[in-house]
Amino acid sequence: MKIKFLLPVACIALFTACNNSSENNEKKEDSTMNNMNMDSSHQMPGSGTNVADLPPIPEGAKVVFKNLKNDATISSPFKLEMGAEVMKIDTAGPVVAGSGHFHIFIDAEDSLAAGTMVPKDSTHIHFGKGQTEYELKLFPGKHKLTLQMADGMHRSYGGRLASTITVNVKK
Questions:
Q1: Residue 161 CA, distance from chain mean position
Q2: How far is CA 90 from CA 16, 26, 47, 70, 124, in A?
Q3: pTM, to two decimals
Q4: In this structure, what are the phi and psi dihedrals at residue 17, rounded to the nearest 5 degrees?
Q5: What does the DSSP 8-state code read for residue 55?
Q6: Residue 19 is inside which H or E element, if any?
């Protein structure tokens, strides 16, 4: 009888504690001035869920900064244009072969290993709605930008679908 009563109470307490923990996280500071809530669909699949394999990368596929070259000098804000060759730009959600969506890494790694979930934080900007343009706001100075494509579940396609450049932001 006591177990029937204690088990639901314990579950409710655990659920409440888990829901409140995200509210207490502090926001990480970095060199960007962007609002990072670009995509609210960034979620891990639940346990017991069948997860599709990472789709293969089609021959000749690549990602490009359409309007930026390495070592370019820019003003902030800057309208960044992202593009892909061979790959279709799609929204986050179902995993579809030959498609994906963009992520921008600011002053972070050059790419993530294939199959790695792209983190969602102040240095990893998600474009899960299929966006190909973004108003980039950076503090003056030198910054490294990486354009990384990921599948519908935000799993990186790896270095083959990543491009890294350096930009200089005017004061």
A1: 13
A2: 35, 31, 25, 26, 18
A3: 0.74
A4: -65, -40
A5: P
A6: helix 2-21
